């Protein structure tokens, strides 16, 4: 349930970023009546709202993500250990099936959190790419400076963290899986 809410909120932010990117690309083409300053003001306002929403999502999900990652790391470790025991004993086919199912579900749960953070980071970077690809060089210097300020601010990427300790990215997912595998090998060596 929490994963679905996080995914929905992140997709909403991604959609807002896409709308902003399209508006950035259209700034110069809409300047027939000298309205680019109004459009740029609206873009700055929209960008501030996107940043605020992203920070609110970060505040809301940071502690939840930390608990989820810690708990799921342990569960993935123990499920992997149960899979190793079930395979080596040749008797526990039901234990093997249950453990593999739980292992898959918990791995996907961690992946959803990490992919949401990666998606948000890549979308926030795409704003500065859109400004670079726009026709900013055909604008008057004062308007292009405003775009430059938006570009500078958008280079500070939006992200979700796990308890403000580490960023939820695909690299973070890889770290969780490595930690689970390390703990699992220690358990297997002790058994």
From TrEMBL:
Predominant location category: membrane
GO terms, biological process: signal transduction
GO MF term set: odorant binding; olfactory receptor activity
Cellular compartment(s): Membrane
Keyword terms, alphabetized: Membrane, Olfaction, Receptor, Sensory transduction, Signal, Transducer, Transmembrane, Transmembrane helix
Membrane-spanning ranges: 63-88, 100-120
InterPro entries registered for this protein in UniProt: 7tm6_olfct_rcpt
Topology within the bilayer: Multi-pass membrane protein
One GO cellular component term noted in the UniProt record for this chain: plasma membrane
Signal peptide: 1-15
Protein's name in the database: Odorant receptor
Gene behind this protein: 105626653
């Amino acid at each position: 349930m929490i994963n679905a809410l996080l995914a929905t909120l992140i997709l909403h932010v991604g959609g807002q970023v896409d709308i902003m990117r399209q508006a950035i690309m259209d700034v110069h083409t809409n300047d027939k009546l000298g309205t680019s300053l109004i459009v740029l003001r609206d873009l700055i306002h929209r960008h501030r709202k996107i940043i605020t929403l992203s920070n609110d999502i970060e505040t809301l999900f940071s502690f939840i993500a930390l608990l989820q990652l810690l708990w799921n790391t342990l569960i993935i470790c123990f499920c992997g250990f149960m899979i190793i025991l079930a395979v080596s004993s040749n008797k526990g086919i039901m234990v093997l099936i249950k453990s593999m199912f739980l292992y898959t579900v918990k791995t996907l749960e961690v992946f959803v959190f990490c992919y949401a953070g990666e998606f948000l980071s890549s979308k926030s970077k795409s704003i500065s790419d859109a400004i670079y690809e726009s026709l900013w060089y055909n604008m008057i210097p004062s308007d292009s400076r405003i775009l430059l300020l938006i570009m500078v601010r958008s280079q500070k990427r939006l992200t979700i963290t796990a308890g403000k300790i580490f960023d939820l990215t695909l690299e973070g997912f890889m770290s969780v899986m490595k930690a689970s595998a390390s703990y699992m090998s220690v358990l297997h060596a002790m058994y």
